[in-house]
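User: tokens in, sequence out, please.
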């Protein structure tokens, strides 16, 4: 299992390759929720999401091990991050994306000199293709979340947050495959286990919620949610045991609640946060945590939005 020392090493490895993202506040959000809210703004991170943290750590390690080619299977943010870091390190990268991939994210991958390859609609179709490409080109495949270097890299967000906000009570984190929240859990629980870490999933993509309830990894059928970065079929083999051991709670949010949070962030805080990144805000606005008077950090995990889709992300 990844440990706190791994996260600290990752921080040293990726220093200078990522931004230290700001923590924003909103008096209106504080008033609406009855808590003191701190918004960890990874939508302002390089490549527009937290994914650069894990990608930077994993790709750098792969290059140290002699990889001459990097591949990833990603619907967007992970692919962008891998393409960017590979380009920075002078190694070619191929990103395998679904046939219905977000055009804005695909354009960004291409902008970072990543070669885009379309394949199917599910990760079960994309991953074998990305793995095959790596094997054929003396390369290494970088998974989006189920990889020790990726998890450790994501955990650097937790270290950073503890330095930025003192005496936190709760950290709220969106869950897709679990790489981000697993890394944060390792960092936070290794330093201050009294801080509660709560995950958030869309109720239409509740694979981690079901897996925790069933006490084993439980896959769900292909689903749809505007929070496309949280649309995984099951938690990872590495991430799930970490969640089982350390996660304090997990709440679900509806599509309408995510839309309301997206609108709130855009309209009232002037921050363009993608629906996946707004999921944790949705949980707070909907009162899902049931707490008052607490110091709470919310992770805004990404801000890569196709502007042509904004209308579909707003409440009716």
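Assistant: Sequence out:
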């Amino acid at each position: 299992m990844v440990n706190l020392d791994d996260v600290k090493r990752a921080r040293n490895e990726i220093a200078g390759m990522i931004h230290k993202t700001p923590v924003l506040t909103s008096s209106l959000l504080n008033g609406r929720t009855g808590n003191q809210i701190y918004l960890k703004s990874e939508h302002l991170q390089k490549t527009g999401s937290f994914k650069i943290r894990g990608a930077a750590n994993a790709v750098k390690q792969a290059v140290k091990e002699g990889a001459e080619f990097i591949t990833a299977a990603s619907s967007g943010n992970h692919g962008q991050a891998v393409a960017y870091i590979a380009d920075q390190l002078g190694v070619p990268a191929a990103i395998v994306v679904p046939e219905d991939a977000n055009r804005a994210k695909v354009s960004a991958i291409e902008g970072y000199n990543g070669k885009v390859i379309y394949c199917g609609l599910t990760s079960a179709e994309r991953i074998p293709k990305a793995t095959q490409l790596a094997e054929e080109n003396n390369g290494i495949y970088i998974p989006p979340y189920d990889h020790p270097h990726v998890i450790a890299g994501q955990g650097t967000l937790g270290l950073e947050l503890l330095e930025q906000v003192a005496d936190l009570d709760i950290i709220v984190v969106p869950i897709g495959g679990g790489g981000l929240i697993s890394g944060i859990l390792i960092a936070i629980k290794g330093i201050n286990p009294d801080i509660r870490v709560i995950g958030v999933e869309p109720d239409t993509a509740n694979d981690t919620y079901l897996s925790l309830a069933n006490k084993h990894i439980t896959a769900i059928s292909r689903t749809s949610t505007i929070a496309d970065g949280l649309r995984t079929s099951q938690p990872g083999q590495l991430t799930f045991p970490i969640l089982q051991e350390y996660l304090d709670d997990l709440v679900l949010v509806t599509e309408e609640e995510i839309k309301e949070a997206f609108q709130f962030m855009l309209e009232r805080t002037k921050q363009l946060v993608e629906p996946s990144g707004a999921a944790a805000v949705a949980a707070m606005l909907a009162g899902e945590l049931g707490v008052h008077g607490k110091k709470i950090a919310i992770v805004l995990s990404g801000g890569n939005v196709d502007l042509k889709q904004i209308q579909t992300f707003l409440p009716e």
